[in-house]
From TrEMBL:
Organism superkingdom: Bacteria
GO molecular function: geranylgeranyl diphosphate synthase activity
Upper classification of the organism: Bacteria, Pseudomonadati, Pseudomonadota, Betaproteobacteria, Burkholderiales
Protein name: Squalene synthase HpnC
Annotated organism of origin: Melaminivora alkalimesophila
Length: 291
């Protein structure tokens, strides 16, 4: 969906999947076998909620009703109640992961809050007033993923959590700046009011995808912000053990490589979505090794 953006399953980083929940990792070859089942359960939970919020032709009211029902099922699973038929494929495995790994339910609930916020904001064309508002959104949409993964890896110190939050928020922002050409025509506004005003860019011009020197400066400024946030969290790769650290290196480098592409377009990402190719993956692997 335009808002909650999972990253790449496989790149089990502190933030993302492969098919289309961009902010969640799914069991990859680098993931310890013992953690593949709980990570897959978390991915199914997030992916299904994303579909409820974004897929099909349901009204905003129906989407919100479904998400409320989904949240109710989450709390039933946490209480040990049997999964209802509609989402048994999600809450059966998730209940097992909750029991075996003591996953923090409030973090799962935060993800649903982000999906609900996206539905409401898209329905009324609401915008984020400033960067603080965007980071508050990331606290629900992306940061819980990293914290859930750190929980599974047994890493819970304050410094690691803060660095995880920085990486996850950066990944969410990078997804926003990558997807401008798709999100804006659909009424999804992740360039804040304050940033637009600072660069003299009108909302109507963004909605119409009218590129200008001012919009170029706006996009590049936001990309620089995301890069700084990623660098703030990068030391975490050296704090995670074994395979987890290597997966995180690849996730970090994937986000930075997308930023390279956004910046190379010099603002034209307003009109086209930058993507990664085979050579980019080789470059990412080399950079990960050098980390």
């Amino acid at each position: 969906m335009g808002g909650v953006k999972p990253v790449q399953p496989g790149a089990a980083a502190v933030a993302a999947p492969v098919t289309h929940y961009e902010n969640f990792p799914v069991a990859s070859l680098l993931c310890p076998p013992a953690l593949r089942a709980p990570i897959a359960a978390l991915y199914a939970f997030a992916r299904t909620a994303d579909d409820l919020a974004d897929e099909g032709n349901a009204s905003a009211a129906q989407r919100l009703a479904d998400l409320r029902a989904y949240r109710h099922e989450l709390h039933r699973a946490a209480a040990g109640a049997p999964a209802a038929p509609r989402w048994a494929f999600v809450f059966g495995p998730l209940a097992a992961a909750l029991r075996s790994h003591g996953l923090p339910v409030p973090l799962l609930s935060d993800l649903l809050t982000a999906f609900e916020q996206d539905v409401r904001m898209t329905a009324c064309g609401a915008t984020h007033p400033d960067r603080a508002s965007l980071l508050a959104y990331c606290r629900h949409s992306a940061n819980p993923v990293g914290r859930l993964l750190l929980h599974l890896y047994g890493v819970q110190d304050a410094v690691s959590l803060a660095q995880s939050d920085a990486i996850c928020s950066a990944l969410q922002l990078i997804n926003f700046w990558q997807d401008l050409s798709e999100d804006l025509p659909r009424g999804r506004h992740y360039l804040s009011d304050a940033d637009c005003a600072a660069h003299g860019v009108a909302r109507a011009d963004l909605a119409a995808l009218r590129r200008s020197p001012a919009s170029d400066r706006l996009v590049l400024d936001c990309a620089a912000w995301a890069r700084a946030l990623m660098h703030e969290g990068m030391p975490l790769v050296h704090r995670l053990p074994g395979r987890a650290g290597w997966e995180l290196r690849l996730v970090v480098q994937g986000g930075l490589r997308i930023l390279d592409k956004v910046e190379a377009l010099r603002g034209a990402s307003l009109l086209q979505r930058p993507t990664l190719g085979a050579l980019d993956w080789l470059r990412m692997a080399g950079r990960a090794l050098r980390m």
